[in-house]
User: What shape does this take?
Amino acid sequence: MESRATRGAPGPTLAMSQTLAKRSVHRSRGGGWQIAGTGDFTGTGEDSILWRNSGGDTLLWNPNGSGGFVGEDLGVVPTNWQIVETGDFNGSGQSGILWRDSSGDTELWNPNGSGGFVGESLGAVPTSWSVQKIFA
Assistant: This one.
């Protein structure tokens, strides 16, 4: 698998062992943003908001402890990749992000515990299959 330094974009060109670093957001954001998920991505017991725009820019709004949010830029992820689900996929108490591209390649981003994510390829799943949420 070829390594790429493009801000944590999932896909076959990302080295899966690469840690996706936390970065603060200091630039203004244009329109076209939609909420892609929510969850406790930071392990604080408070839910963050996961945003994505039509250009693939991906952003977390994490609670700042005083009633507001602090933005964390997760980078630009190619638009053929979609966020399928968010949740605690590994029992760590923190939410991860499940991604899938238009060809069925599937990837999981789990928090690394120090701000950021570690990507793991789950392989290709036929596009005729869909992710279903299981309620425990």
